[in-house]
Structures are given as C-alpha cells and as structure tokens.
Design a protein that fits this description.
- The complex is a heterodimer of chains A (about 120) and B (about 270).
- By secondary structure, chain A is an alpha+beta fold.
- Chain A has a single domain, classed as N-terminal domain of TfIIb (Single Sheet).
- By secondary structure, chain B is α/β, with parallel strands linked by helices.
- Chain B is built from five helices and 13 strands.
- Chain B has an eight-stranded mixed sheet with strand order 5-4-3-6-7-13-12-11, with helices on both faces. In chain B, strands 2-9-10 form a three-stranded antiparallel sheet. Chain B has a two-stranded parallel ribbon with strand order 1-8.
- The longest helix of chain B is centred in the N-terminal third of the chain and has 23 residues.
- Classes of the chains: A alpha+beta (about 120), B alpha/beta (about 270).
- At the A-B interface, α2 and β4 of A face β4, α3 and β5 of B.
- The structure holds S-adenosylmethionine and zinc ion.
- The site of S-adenosylmethionine has 18 residues of chain B, from α1.
C-alpha cells in the first residue's frame, strides 16, 4: 500500500534531479480509507521525523484538511488522531506520483508504487 | 531430499541484464512457492529489530515476501519493504495478515529523501548483485538511507563457508583471489503442482528447475565491502569515541558468520 507515511519518505531519483524532487505529487489517484489501530506513542515518536509541510500539502491535495499548516507546539489527542488518519488510513490504490521537478511519473498499481528507473535514467 | 548442486558461473553479460535474467525473472516465476517456504525469521535479525528504540522507521531492502515486516513489535517500530520482484511484493503487501507498505524498487537506487530512515536491513539480497561495484553501491545506498547521527544497519549475505546442516553441495574449486568469493547458480526446483500454471499434470511429473545467480561471499569480503562503501562516502570507519569535532563515521559493531551466512551490523555516528 502507499500511505502518506511512505509517501513522506519517497523522493525522485532520476538523473540530475536533485532539487525540488520532493514531495512527489499524486495524480489521478484512487483512494481507499481503511481503519488502522491508533497507537499514540508511535505517532508521538514519529512526529519529529515527518517533513511537515510536505505532509500537509499532500493531505490537502487529497482532500484532507484536518492538519494545521504549522506543526502545533501542544500535541493533544485530537491532533494525534487526525495525524493518525492522514498517515495510516488513507491508502492510495491506483494512480501515479509525479516529480515536481522533472515530471517523471512513478505509477501506482494495486497499492504498489513502482519506483524503478532504467539504469540510464539514473545519476 | 537430495542436496541441490550449486554450479560456478561466469557473469558474461552486462551485469544489469544478467541480474534481470538470472535473478529478477526467476524470483517472479517462483514467487508463490518461494514465499510458502520462507517464513522463519533468522534469530539475529529478530534480535536486531527487538533492540531498536520505539518509533523508529526502517527500510527492508530486498524484502522478498516480507518475512521480516511483521516483526514490528506490534507497531512500536515501522518498516517499509522494497523489492525488485512484483510477485513477491504481492505476498509482502499482506505479510502477517496486515496491510504493509511495499515499494517496487531497486536496492541499488536511492529513491528516498536523504537519511529518511532510522534503520535499514538487507537480508540475503546484496549477494544477488553481479559485480563488486554494484554490491558496494548497494551498501552505500543503505548508508545514505539512514540517519547520519544514529542510523543502524544489518546486512546478511550468503557465505562460501557453509553450515554442515546446509542442504547444498558447493563446488570445491579454489577462489581466484584470496577472499574474492564465488559466482554461482543455485537451482530452485518447481514441480508442476507448485508452478503457477500447474493444473492437470500427475504429481511429481515435469519438474522445472530455475537457476538463480548468487555471489557467495568469502571470509572477510563483506567487511571489506562495507569499508570500501563507507570510505567512498567519506565516512570514518570505527567507533565515535575520541573522534575530532565535525566528523562523521560508521562503526562495524558486528562482523560475523552464522549458519552459512556472513552478517555485519553497522552504526552511523556524527560529532557536531
Ligand atoms: C533470498 S531473497 C531474501 C528475501 C528476504 N529478505 C528474506 O530474508 O526472506 C532475495 C530477495 O532479493 C530481491 N532482490 C534481488 N536483487 C534485488 C535488487 N537489485 N533490488 C531489490 N531487490 C532485489 C529478490 O527479488 C528477492 O526477493
Ligand atoms: Zn525528478
């Protein structure tokens, strides 16, 4: 599955594509919402590792506006639950992820993103 | 079962094309049978994962059927599986009966934002790369994927030095250079009933044999590979203690043999 937790780690790796290559932009996506067990400790630990702006931007693009633009200083349960939903419950099943810089499209099929590039497409 | 003979080979094609034919195509064909035989985690991997701090995110590079993905300590740590075989990933996607995050990708290519992970494992995968340069690049990919401050890495590869319990017969020829390892083809026997198209043939008939390419590592070779990879990234090899300010390095905390495999555990460090 591609969820936003994974999307937040992926970057374009095409040849000479080193700047503005993150976050990849979802395109023509088919989503599925599936409940996942809420684990507030994990989310708290995970929080500092997130690229916040990329996560919020991507969630907005997928129609989820529950997260604040700036990471809040006080973390309450409602915030953690929204974050949990955005990171772990939105599954992208079909579609693609496009590099904002070189426009390479990484297709997603049956929930598996294809990040393969031919060797000549790679730096 | 009779021991399976392992034959020495010479990689005679461009290594990428060679791997496509002799590794990736094969795993895609044997995926479901392979998957049904791969469920027992190796204890050293289990131990490595059990000692990671809560909340750490990791990469399993060459996840196969995702055997290690369920060892996430009930969600206390997180792990993303990457593999070149789409058919194995279809199993990995549901490893342990839960939705897992998996990526179709190449262990040689770094498709992540820099240092995005806290840890990475690569179990029985780097030995499928068909020359020393590519194996070194795969190690560099792992080093680049993890945090420069605290990243931990565990790598396992197949050894020339085999366990007596091993079912394999290894060719006895001398290695060309000391510690250079051996390139071999390892057969995988797929009977019709376990093959994807296997339908109406009587039991045991028409066995298909698929050969997978492996580089069997010699003693000391994995440690040298890591040293070369780290040096290429300007990392100091050794412990963090006593290093000068603004230096970065990697410590090899274990370099050992277990049950027909060599493994290393690495820890990255940086001093501000
Ligand atoms: C022996 S299996 C090990 C699977 C798993 N790590 C385990 O221990 O059960 C080797 C795996 O490496 C994968 N592999 C080989 N070369 C690869 C590459 N260049 N990039 C990604 N995966 C690769 C294969 O598809 C296969 O799933
Ligand atoms: Zn790009």
């Amino acid at each position: 599955m591609v969820r936003l937790v994974t999307h937040n780690l992926l970057a374009c790796h095409a040849k000479d594509c080193n700047t503005n290559n993150f976050p990849l932009v979802f395109q023509n996506v088919q989503l599925e919402i599936r409940e996942a067990e809420f684990n507030s400790d994990f989310i708290r630990n995970f929080l500092p590792k997130i690229e916040w702006n990329a996560l919020v931007k991507t969630a907005y693009e997928l129609g989820d506006t529950s997260l604040p633009q700036d990471q809040p200083e006080m973390v309450d349960d409602e915030f953690l639950k929204n974050l949990h939903h955005v990171l772990f419950e939105i599954h992208i099943i079909e579609g693609g992820m496009v590099c904002p810089n070189c426009k390479h499209n990484y297709p997603i099929s049956d929930g598996i993103p294809n990040m393969l590039l031919a060797e000549h497409e790679i730096a | 079962m009779a021991p399976k003979a392992v034959a020495e080979v010479v990689v005679d094609l461009d290594p990428e094309a060679y791997e496509t034919q002799n590794v990736h195509a094969i795993y895609d064909k044997i995926a479901s049978h392979f998957s049904s035989t791969r469920y027992k985690p190796w204890p050293i991997v289990t131990k490595f994962l059990s000692e990671l701090p809560d909340g750490w995110i990791g990469l399993d590079s060459g996840t196969g059927n995702g055997k290690y993905l369920p060892l996430d300590r009930q969600g206390k740590i997180w792990m993303i599986g990457l593999d070149r075989s789409i058919n194995l990933l279809k199993n990995a996607q549901q490893a342990g009966g839960k939705a897992r995050e998996v990526i179709l990708g190449n262990a040689l290519h770094h498709c992540w934002r820099g240092h995005a992970f806290d840890y990475a494992i690569s179990i029985a995968t780097i030995h499928h790369l068909a020359n020393p340069q590519r194996r070194m690049l795969a190690v560099q990919c792992l080093l680049r994927a993890v945090s420069p401050k605290h990243g931990r890495i565990l790598i396992y590869v197949w050894a020339i030095e085999q366990d007596e319990l091993s079912k394999r017969i290894i060719p006895q020829g001398e290695c060309k250079e000391v510690g250079s390892g051996k390139d071999v083809i390892v057969p995988w026997v797929l009977s019709k009933e376990t093959s994807p198209q296997g339908t109406n043939s009587p039991e045991g008939e028409e066995k298909q044999v698929y050969g997978r390419y492996y580089h069997m590592f010699a003693k000391g070779e994995l440690g040298r590979l890591v040293t070369e990879a780290a040096t290429g990234l300007n990392l100091i090899i050794g412990a963090a203690d006593g290093q000068v300010p603004s230096s970065e390095g990697v410590e090899i905390v274990q370099d050992s043999w277990e049950r027909s495999n060599y493994y290393v555990e690495l820890r990255r460090w940086s001093i501000p």
